[in-house]
Design brief:
This protein folds into three domains: 246 residues, Alpha/Beta hydrolase fold, catalytic domain (Rossmann fold); 116 residues, S-adenosyl-L-methionine-dependent methyltransferases; 71 residues, no CATH class. 40% of the residues lie in helices and 24% in strands. It contains 14 helices and 17 strands. The strands form three sheets. An eight-stranded mixed β-sheet has the order 10-11-13-12-14-15-16-17, sandwiched between helices. Strands 2, 4, 5, 6, 8 and 9 form a six-stranded mixed β-sheet that branches. It has a three-stranded antiparallel β-sheet with strand order 1-3-7. β10 and β11 form a beta hairpin. α3 runs antiparallel to α4 and α6 packs across α7. The longest helix is centred in the last third of the chain and has 24 residues. The chain starts with a helix and ends with a helix.
Length: 506
């Protein structure tokens, strides 16, 4: 193996190991609350939304800063990564550095308390506080800044996760605050919200210019404590009896997640806790039968833990409205330090999942463990999905980034007849003497992507085996942006395969 490829693999492995250790549920550090992980994800999404509308000059300006971001992330200098990421977002818009007020605002985070509470609770507290330090925190500037908040009810599951309803609940525009105020709190005592999930949208206004401070989710549930207690008892019974159906494991995992949110612990992403509780109750009523939740009437997002032979796979799933008799299926394998949420939330602010939904394809993202793969094989996951939805076995696609590209290659040799096409971005894998099957490949990397050598090695390995490979290198593109930069080409490639397979088999 080439020396550069060895170094890239070692970097990914060590970074993933360290990131998984600091995010362990049993970890005692502040990072266990996932606040840093959550804030990085929120800032990455903000960058990706800006990247999508930036011109080529802006994208080029952001490349070096994104390289610094990725380097800091893999070195576990996470606050440095956040600062570089914010500077990259500004570079997409303008050639000059951010002004003092903008830099101050971007260094802040907003906490909401409580994230989850009983619907009878009418109090909400929002706190603006420092996330990372600035070189000149109190440099004498004294411009006034307004913070504007609004609350939107989350749309139904049929509109997909984290979509807003058109109606909104007016909340507040703050009095002017000075940058010298290191922490600012706002508390509402009479905020009556019905049971459900809500998105709070926060924006700052400086001299009439809006700056996005992010969106976050709060949830209100009727009779919360008694309903959580019922799920807890069901989970305890399942632990004692050792029942391991997919529904049983999902109930237990949902309870653990809801318990943490109810305790005020920030998670890696915004979860619709009210909806998760309803899903757990649906599974409880059906004695763990997932078909009570996943059926012909199901449309939208969910989180499910699939189980087989004492093994589990945690997946996030999006099922769009059906466009034909069967659903094509797109597997999405995330990179190091990510989770099943990554393709849904980032990698172009969730565009890969949305592109799949626009085509009527089911998108499934398994959580990748560092040493244990994805828990179940792609074939086992596919067959579980096929129990609940009519799937198109001639149109199954794999897509992976970085460590996920390695996973896509591994799953391809384990199930050579399953994928109709495979996409590997910013990384690769080795086959040895194993046969990866006949599926065509799309492989890409950025010209400044440390995973390029691995991707090129994968191209060489597949070419030597006589496989069909499309290779593309993207200019002024580093390791993180390669997914977003290539998505239009990726789906043009997948569309061609999907059309060909449909024509041949229908």
């Amino acid at each position: 193996m080439r020396q550069k490829q060895k170094a890239a693999l070692l970097t990914i492995f060590c970074a993933a190991l360290a990131l998984l250790s600091i995010c362990s549920p049993n970890c005692g550090s502040n990072l266990c609350a996932q606040e840093t992980r959550y804030e990085l994800g929120r800032r990455l999404k903000r960058f990706e939304q800006q990247w999508e509308i930036a011109d080529l000059h802006g994208r080029s300006r952001s490349t070096a800063l994104m390289e610094k971001t990725v380097s800091s992330f893999f070195s576990l200098r996470l606050l440095d990564a956040a600062k570089s990421l914010d500077l990259a977002t500004v570079a997409l818009r303008q050639s000059r550095p951010p002004g003092a007020d903008t830099a101050w605002l971007m260094s802040r985070r907003i906490d909401a308390t409580p994230l989850l509470s009983d619907a009878t609770n009418t109090e909400l507290k929002l706190t603006l506080k420092s996330f990372y330090p600035l070189t000149q925190e109190n440099s004498g500037y004294n411009k006034k800044i307004h913070i504007r908040f609004a609350i939107y009810p989350l749309a139904s599951r049929g509109e997909y996760a984290l979509a807003f309803d058109k109606s909104k609940v007016p909340l507040h525009q703050s009095d002017p605050i000075a940058r010298q105020a290191l922490e600012q709190c706002w508390t509402w005592q009479n905020l009556e919200l019905q049971e459900g999930d809500y998105v709070i949208v926060a924006k700052a206004i400086i001299n009439g210019i809006e700056i996005d401070l992010g969106n976050f989710v709060i949830s209100r549930v009727g009779q919360l404590e008694s309903r959580l207690s019922s799920i807890d008892k069901a989970s305890e019974t399942l632990r004692k009896t050792g029942i391991k159906s997919s529904g049983d494991v999902t109930i237990a995992n949902h309870f653990s997640l809801l318990k943490n949110i109810n305790s005020g612990l920030v998670q890696e992403t915004d979860y619709p806790a009210s909806r998760l509780l309803l899903d757990a109750e649906t599974l409880m009523k059906s004695n763990g039968d997932c078909s009570a939740l996943l059926n012909d009437q199901f449309i939208g997002d969910t989180w499910i833990s699939l189980a087989k032979d004492q093994r589990t796979a945690n997946i996030r799933l999006r099922v769009p409205p059906k466009r034909s008799e069967t659903y094509p299926v797109l597997f999405l394998f995330h990179g190091a330090g990510g989770s099943e949420n990554m393709f849904f939330e980032t990698y172009g602010a969730g565009r890969a999942v949305q592109f799949a939904a626009d085509r009527g394809w089911i998108a499934v993202a398994p959580r990748q463990r560092l040493l244990g793969g994805i828990g179940l094989s792609s074939t086992e996951i596919f067959e579980e999905i096929a129990r609940y939805f009519p799937v198109d076995r001639d149109r199954v696609f794999f897509m992976g980034h970085s460590m996920g590209a390695m996973q896509a290659a591994q799953q391809t040799v384990q199930a050579p007849d399953l994928p109709s096409a495979v996409v590997a971005l910013g990384g690769g894998g080795r086959f040895g003497s194993r046969e990866p099957g006949a599926a065509p490949w799309f492989i890409a990397a950025g010209d400044r992507d440390f995973g390029k050598s691995g991707a090129r090695s994968l191209v060489d390995a597949l070419t030597a085996k006589g496989k069909t490979v499309q290779w593309k290198e993207y200019p002024q593109t580093e390791h993180m942006v390669i997914v977003q930069a290539s998505l239009d080409d990726v789906f043009a490639f997948l569309d061609a395969i999907a059309t060909m397979n449909r024509s041949e088999n229908h």
